[in-house]
Amino acid sequence: MSKALRVTDYLGHMLEAMERIDRYTADMDEAAFLESELVQDAVIRNIEVIGEASNNILRTDPAFAAQHEDVPWLVMYTMRNRVAHGYDKVDLEIVWRTIARDLPGLYRQVRALLGAST
């Protein structure tokens, strides 16, 4: 399997995880999110997927990641590590801000990269 194909797979995993987060939180405001452990758990799991896929791109094709340095590859992986390893200290308000402020733009970036990679 070529590196380009692997990058395409990882970008697809990222898009799918972001789409799931969007579906899970579509009719919610921050207060509803903070009240729903089920949605919190689902969102955090998908943040882990996004971060792991980002790290896989960094690891398997660093040239691709460097070529697209405007994508916050390391930030995504760092957030994944924080929610996975610091599971007892997750700041759900930061998670909500990430959903509301960062994911829409990130989704557009990754979707554009996936379109350019196919």
UniProtKB/TrEMBL annotation:
InterPro entries: HepT-like, HepT_RNase_toxin. The lineage of its organism: Bacteria, Pseudomonadati, Pseudomonadota, Betaproteobacteria, Burkholderiales. Coiled coil: none annotated. It holds the Pfam family HepT-like. The keyword Phosphoprotein applies. This is DUF86 domain-containing protein. One of its GO terms (molecular function) is RNA nuclease activity. Keywords: Hydrolase, Nuclease, Nucleotide-binding, Phosphoprotein, Toxin-antitoxin system. It comes from Melaminivora suipulveris. The keyword Transferase does not apply. GO terms for cellular component: toxin-antitoxin complex.
